[in-house]
Every structure is written in structure tokens, then in C-alpha cells.
Amino acid sequence: MSDQRARVLAAPGAVDGPADTPRTDRPRTDRPRTTDVPEPSAGPRNWPASFVDRLSDPLPMPGVRDIVRLVRECAVRPPSHSLKDVPLLPVEPGPLPSAGRATVSVTWAGHASWVVRIGGLTVLTDPVWSRRIPGTPRRITPVGVPWKALPPIDAVVISHNHYDHLDAPTVKRLPRSTPCYVPAGLGEWFRRRGFTRVAELDWWEGTWLRGVRFDFVPAHHWSRRTLTDTCRSLWGGWVLTDSDGHRVYFAGDTGYGAYFAEIARVHPGIDLALLPIGAYTPRWMLRPVHTDPEEAVQAFLDLGAAAMAPMHWATFLLSGEPPLEPLTRLRAAWSAAGLPRGALWDLPIGASRVLAG
Q1: Using CA atoms, how far apart are residues 108 and 143, in angstroms rounded to an integer?
Q2: Dihedral sign, CA of 263, 282, 226, 175?
Q3: Mean pLDDT of all residues in 49-74
Q4: Mean predicted confidence (pLDDT) in 291-317
């Protein structure tokens, strides 16, 4: 184990055991790596009725005892005294960087929504521009990029179908000819809404759009949108690679586990990893599906990426940690690992960073 990894694992709240010894999850090895699929089209593919066999851990669905425990621990929402820190959350909207074909830049719109400029394309990740999503209090910070300020959208990538990552009112704003890259089993949701260029991908599959490659990679998570569709569609992250070899990894929603090292093996040389750091308390329930800040730093090390930009915090109050805690713990874990400060792109909502161009 490297000294950097050892320092992260020794930090408060770090994962139990070394990164080289995952809990119960195992990377799938029964599929070819980086299999090509056609560019987005209207044609559906045949998928299994369920992807429950892809789960790394049992579903984090609380039973009666768990619900009682949540109420007793007051763990569903942040402590009331910590809500005074909401106005301190970093929000600094700015103009989008000018983008040419050689430009690679990211702009954080909030939560898991990014405006990624790569290879001459403008790509949205998990676009949620709504003020409120089902089952969740309204967002506590504004969207970092007004919809009218967006350039034409060349593509959208979706990590999974949970409401805070797949927002129907936002998707409805997109032209129906927008190429949509979605997990296996989720294509019909888009086709029913009139989208004509939909690519459904399994883990380790990839496709191309105007010189940019879109690869779908595993995540430690799950899917459900209604009471009857649990794990009927897949979940995962995306690796975007331009013709010059610049590579951006968008993790979507994920817990910590062995897949990060596997992604690094299949897609080496990641320049920027967009990793979630929030919605992690209580750990006894959320650890399988959401990384905490220390685990996010460990995932960054496993990925071998050059830089990290945190996400999935400061937007919706989804769990019990205080609003500012994810960033505070992330910076502490980053420092404890001896990582260079310039490689941590802890952007305010609405801010941008240019990787190349």
C-alpha cells in the first residue's frame, strides 16, 4: 500500500481495511472490455428483466427497525443547528469558458449536474435544473448555470434513474434530437418522451459521437424510480475521452469499492475525476451506495487520476450530515494524504475550470 493510501485510511471516518481488499464486491470479468456499440439511435436493445445480480451489497432499503432507528437518531436530515451554515455554501456563478475543439472544461451546476466541454461537444451530466425533486426538500442553493445561458447541448449522459439524477422536467427542456447516453434498461424512458437518438449501454461498453468516446463503467449503487421497477435498469458512471486523449470520469452516484481500480485499469490516464462526497450519513445505511469524503479521496487514488472535482453535495439535503461537513472533511482527508492542493478542484456552484484548450 502506498504512503498516500495509508494516510487516507488512517483519517477519521476512513473505510475499514485496505483499498486492495474490497468488502464483498467483485469487478465483473465476464464481459469484454470497451465493447463498441452503435451511435445513438431509436432502436431498443434486449436486456434482462432485472440487474439485481449487479448489486455490490444488499439494497439500502430500511425495514421497520431501521426506520425506528433513523427517527431515534434524527439521522434523516442534518441537525437543525447546522442549517445556519447553508448561506455559507460556496456559490459563485460565472460565465462558461469559451470552448473550441481542443478545450476540455467543466462547470458545476450543482449536485451531479456538470457542463462538460470536450472535443468540441457540450455534454450535460445528470441534468437537474428543477428547484424541487420528488421526495426531497427544495434545493438549498441556486442552479449554477441558468438554462438560458447554456450553449446548444450536444449530448446528455445519465448515471441512473433516481429522481435527483434523472429529472423529467429538465429532460423535457431538451430538443428531442439530443443524443442521450443512458444505462441499460433506461432507453425506453427516453423513447417514450420522444427522444430519437438514445444509446443504452452495459458496463464496459462504449460508443462515439463526433470524435468523442463515451464509455459506461460500473458503480456501487442501484436503481429505482417507482415501487415496481427496482433494479430494472442499470447504474454506473461515464468516461469521456477526446481525440487528443484527454479523459474525464463522471462517477454518477456510488459507494466505495473495487470498481475504481478496475476503471483505472481499463481506462488509464484519467485527467479529471468528478466524484461524489455527500449524502453519506448515517453510514450504517448509506455506506454501500454513497462515498463519504475520505472514501472519495481513496477512490481518487485508486483511479490514478490527475485531479478531482467533488460533487453531490451543497444542493439538496438528502441525509444527516451538516451542510458544510463534506467539504471540510474532504479537504482534511486530501491534506492527510499528502496530495497537491492544486489537484483538488473544489469548485463553488456555478464555477468553471479549464483542463486543456
Answers
A1: 9
A2: negative
A3: 74
A4: 98
Identity of residue 137: P
The CA distance from 248 to 336, in Å, is 25
φ, ψ of residue 203 to 5 degrees: the values are -55, 140
Q: How far apart are CA 278 and CA 293, in angstroms?
A: 7
Residue identified by cell 430519437 is 196
Task: Give the full edge-to-edge strand order of the sheet including 352-356.
Answer: 198-201, 180-183, 155-157, 121-125, 113-118, 104-110, 352-356
Q: Which three cell numbers stand for residue 112?
A: 451531479
Q: Is the pLDDT of residue 13 over 60?
A: no
Helix, strand, coil tally for the chain in percent (to 5): 20, 20, 60
Map out the domains of the chain with their CATH numbers.
100-351 (3.60.15.10)
Q: Which of 54, 42, 56, 49 is nearest to 200 (CA)?
A: 42
Tens of pLDDT, residue by residue over 23-33, are 334 444 445 56
The pLDDT score that the predictor gives to residue 60 is 67
Confidence of residue 185 (pLDDT cuts 50, 70, 90): very high
Cis check for the bond before 218: say yes or no (omega within 30 of 0).
no
Q: Which helix (H) or strand (E) holds 47?
A: none
Q: How does pLDDT run across 277-298, given as a tens digit for each residue?
A: 999 999 998 999 999 999 999 9
pLDDT at 68 (0 to 100): 55
Listing DSSP states for 200-268 in one string gives EE-TTEEEEETTEEEEEE--S----SSTT-TTSS---EEEEE-TT--EEEE--S---STHHHHHHHHS-
Query: CA 144, CA 149: separation in Å to the nearest integer?
Result: 10
pTM: 0.90
| pLDDT score of 12 | 34
Q: Residue 291 is which amino acid?
A: T
Q: What is the mean pLDDT of the chain?
A: 89
C-alpha triplet 224, 230, 231: angle, nearest 5°: 90
Name every residue whose Cβ is closer than 8 Å to that of residue 355 and which is 6 or more positions away in sequence: 104, 105, 106, 246, 248, 271, 272, 307
Grid cell for residue 307: 485531479
Where do the DSSP E strands lie in the chain?
35-36, 104-110, 113-118, 121-125, 155-157, 180-183, 198-201, 205-209, 212-217, 237-241, 247-250, 272-276, 307-311, 352-356
